[in-house]
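During the reporting period the student researcher (J.K.) took over the structure-prediction task from the postdoctoral fellow and processed the backlog of single-chain submissions. One of the processed entries is reproduced below for the supervisory committee.
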Amino acid sequence: MTQSAPLPYATPTPAGPRTATWAVWLKRLAPLLGLVLVTGFFSALRPDTFLTSGNFNLILTQTAVVGTAALGMTIIIVSGGIDLSVGSHLALCTVVVAWVLKWGAPAPIAAAAAVGLGCLVGLSIGVLVTFGRLMPFIVTLGLLAFLRGLAKQLAQEGGRVDPGRDTWLNDLLNPFDPRNPLLPWGVWVMLALALLVTGVLRYTRFGRHVFAVGSNEQTARLCGVPVGRVKVLAYVVAGGLTGVAGLLFFGTLNGMGKATEAEGYELRVIAAVVIGGASLTGGEGTVLGSLIGALIMGVIANGCTKLGLRDPVQLMVTGGIIVLAVALDRLRHRRAT
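J.K. obtained the following structure tokens:
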């Protein structure tokens, strides 16, 4: 009986020095160094308004939505995929939450509706990509427009839905709520989910398969990895996390569902994951890196606001950072080969 080939992620690395080289450590610490640099930059320019506990609390609050969505995007990018529909997905979730609340349903039902919708959208993407053999870029680009249009259709005139009542969902990201334990509840939700996703990627078969598929899909298939199932499940899990991010986003909109919000969030979420060290070619990425990348985006947005720079400048800075991060990733892979 022939012995099956080892999975690609289990292939032993060549023997080398026990201590990592400076290049490896630089790669690992690059996101953290970037966070320290941008924080120091804005602290030096606006020490009176930037270096305050209240402002750091605000940055964490503003980072929670992007950071939670980035957890799901990390799984997708590591598996070799991409999702450009995150912004529209978030907007649709806020509309659905408000719409369900408006019809008198309790808050837990509204929350379950948002997460369930997220999983359904992820399932649709996964099926189209895996069994329809369509490129993730094309599928999610189409969904970007479709989900935004669906959100506007549900919201109808005015592009917003007012539930007409307040629930605990309104206070998930309220930095001024005295009931919050140090930080808003939404930030704790993000951190708890980050620990959960880290455990899944590191210690479960599904997590190992995600890295295997992203590293080399053909080799993974030959080694017995159920590639199609892994891809679909990756998008479903990521969709559910996007649904949770939509719940948090609902809390930042004064308890209303707005179909015209979250435009450009796909840029922020993808930027957070790429800045955090994930490779757009798949097979690389960490939850911690993505959270640090989300914090970098939050610090830049907050710092630009403190400096009086308008949103177009922030968008240009974000785009430049993405191009730089991708260019460095390409250069690193070229040197590795």
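The committee noted the following: Residues 53-78 form the longest helix (26 residues).
J.K. will present the remaining backlog at the next meeting.
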